[in-house]
Design brief:
45% of the residues lie in helices and 13% in strands. It is an alpha/beta fold and 119 residues long. It has a 3-stranded parallel beta sheet with strand order 1-2-3, sandwiched between helices. The longest helix is centred in the last third of the chain and has 13 residues, at 96-108.
Length: 119
C-alpha cells in the first residue's frame, strides 16, 4: 500500500501496519500479536502476487478480509487470479473517498468467505 493510501486510512481512524512488499508483510503479520482485520494489497508485486500473499496471510489469520487494488487492465489482473465476483477489488486510480468507502464496506461485510479468496 502506498503512503497516500496509508495516510488516508490513518486519517479515517484506522490503525495501519504498512509493509514495503509481500515478504515484509508476511514477517510483519507473523510478528504482530494484535488483531489484523483487513489486508489491502496490490495485485501485481515483486516476489509474490497479491493472491499468493493473501493465501499466506489467511493461513496465519483465517478471519482476515482482503481488498485488492490494481492499476493494471482486467486481463493482467485476471492472470493473477483475482477477478472473481466474490473478491473485493478497487481499480486504480481511486479517490480517497472511494478507498474509505470500500474499506468500510469490506470490514462491515460479515460474510467473510465472500470477501476472502475463492478457493
Amino acid at each position: 500500500m502506498g503512503n497516500l493510501a496509508r495516510e488516508v486510512l490513518e486519517d479515517l481512524g484506522y490503525t495501519v501496519l504498512a509493509a514495503r512488499g509481500p515478504l515484509e508483510a508476511v514477517a510483519l503479520v507473523e510478528g504482530y500479536a494484535g488483531p489484523i482485520h483487513l489486508l489491502v494489497s496490490d495485485v501485481v508485486m515483486p516476489d509474490m502476487n497479491g493472491r499468493r500473499l493473501a493465501d499466506r496471510l489467511l493461513a496465519l489469520r483465517p478471519t482476515l478480509k482482503v481488498l485488492y487494488m490494481s492499476g493494471y487492465t482486467d486481463n493482467t489482473v485476471d492472470r493473477h487470479g483475482v477477478l472473481d465476483t466474490r473478491i473485493s477489488f478497487l481499480q486504480k486510480p481511486f479517490t480517497s473517498d472511494a478507498l474509505g468507502r470500500r474499506v468500510r464496506a469490506v470490514l462491515d461485510n460479515s460474510d467473510t468467505r465472500a470477501l476472502q479468496l475463492a478457493r
